[in-house]
């Protein structure tokens, strides 16, 4: 049994991770900002600390008392993204101070979009901007007596409860009356089902072979052609697909057009599979869209 402190435990990824950690007989402590989040955690038998990511004293104390820290929390404020990046970096700094020299585990979350390559592997360094800045800090902590790992999430992490990119794309396509893509729709978008993704965190926590300083990729679909995504959404909504210019995409899809429609990426997770014996078992993105009840239900509302 490991005493694990988590941030973001009631978020999309966190709410799928906590049950499997509890099944593994781990003892969990997590922060909560609201009464609703606190109750959700307490109902699972998770110890609650009322705090936010900006309460560094509370984070330091909780991390110091834990055997391991899993940092999933992030301030999803696209209107003030630089502030969100600053909070994330400060949070990692706080955990670094709390865990230095202890040989305890720190697992943090980044994204493939922080990678410096359009074809990233686990050995590809992150950019030194955005979430990549915190990623570099986490990896450096392996030389400070911390068993540190970064899990890079696929840009589309899908499944029941998703309130992020795919949900927003479906909402905006519904409003537009078509499922849009730019040009030929031939850019690629890595994806993973949330139930597969959370197993990367669990396996990393329990691994006896990882030494520290590793990047792990939570990626199942290495790169789904965007047109295939649009066709699957269009089929479910009963609307046509439509090729757009970047200018037209910006009108109908707002900030999604700046990354979702233009960032071509094919990502590998071969080292993660080798290091952790991780094998994705859930549906791929296109199949999930074709069969999902969640994405086309009234409950599926994007947080963006």
From TrEMBL:
Single annotated GO MF: aldehyde dehydrogenase (NAD+) activity
Signal peptide annotation: none
GO cellular component: cytoplasm
SUPFAM superfamilies documented for this protein: NAD(P)-binding Rossmann-fold domains
Alphabetical list of InterPro entries matching this protein: Epimerase_deHydtase (IPR001509), NAD(P)-bd_dom_sf (IPR036291), NAD(P)-dependent_oxidoreduct (IPR051783)
Positions of the NAD-dependent epimerase/dehydratase domain: 4-208
One Pfam family recorded for the sequence: Epimerase
Name of the protein in its database record: NAD-dependent epimerase/dehydratase domain-containing protein
Species, as recorded: Cryptococcus amylolentus CBS 6273
């Amino acid at each position: 049994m490991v005493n694990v402190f988590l941030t973001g435990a009631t978020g999309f990824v966190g709410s799928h991770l906590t049950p499997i950690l509890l099944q593994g007989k781990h003892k969990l402590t997590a922060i909560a900002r609201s009464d609703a989040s606190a109750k959700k955690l307490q109902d699972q038998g998770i110890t609650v600390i009322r705090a936010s990511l900006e309460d560094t004293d509370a984070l330091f104390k909780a991390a110091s008392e834990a055997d391991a820290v899993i940092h999933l929390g992030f301030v999803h404020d696209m209107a003030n993204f630089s502030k969100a990046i600053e909070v994330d970096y400060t949070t990692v700094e706080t955990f670094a101070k709390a865990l230095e020299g202890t040989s305890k585990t720190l697992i943090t979350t980044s994204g493939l979009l922080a990678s410096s390559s359009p074809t990233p592997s686990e050995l590809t360094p992150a950019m030194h901007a955005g979430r990549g800045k915190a990623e570099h800090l986490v990896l450096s902590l392996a030389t400070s007596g911390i068993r540190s790992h970064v899990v890079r999430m696929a840009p589309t992490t899908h499944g029941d409860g998703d309130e992020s990119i795919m949900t927003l794309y479906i909402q905006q396509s519904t409003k537009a009356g078509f499922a849009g893509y730019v040009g030929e729709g031939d850019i690629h978008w890595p994806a993973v089902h949330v139930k597969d993704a959370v197993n990367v965190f669990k396996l990393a926590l329990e691994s006896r072979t990882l030494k520290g300083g590793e990047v792990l990729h939570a990626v199942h679909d290495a790169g789904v052609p965007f047109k295939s995504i649009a066709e699957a959404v269009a089929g479910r909504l009963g609307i046509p697909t439509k090729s757009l210019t970047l200018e037209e995409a910006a009108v109908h899809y707002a900030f999604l057009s700046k990354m979702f429609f233009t960032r071509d990426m094919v990502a590998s997770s071969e080292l993660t599979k080798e290091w952790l014996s991780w094998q994705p078992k859930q549906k791929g993105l296109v199949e999930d869209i074709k069969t999902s009840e969640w994405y086309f239900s009234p409950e599926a509302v994007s947080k963006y």
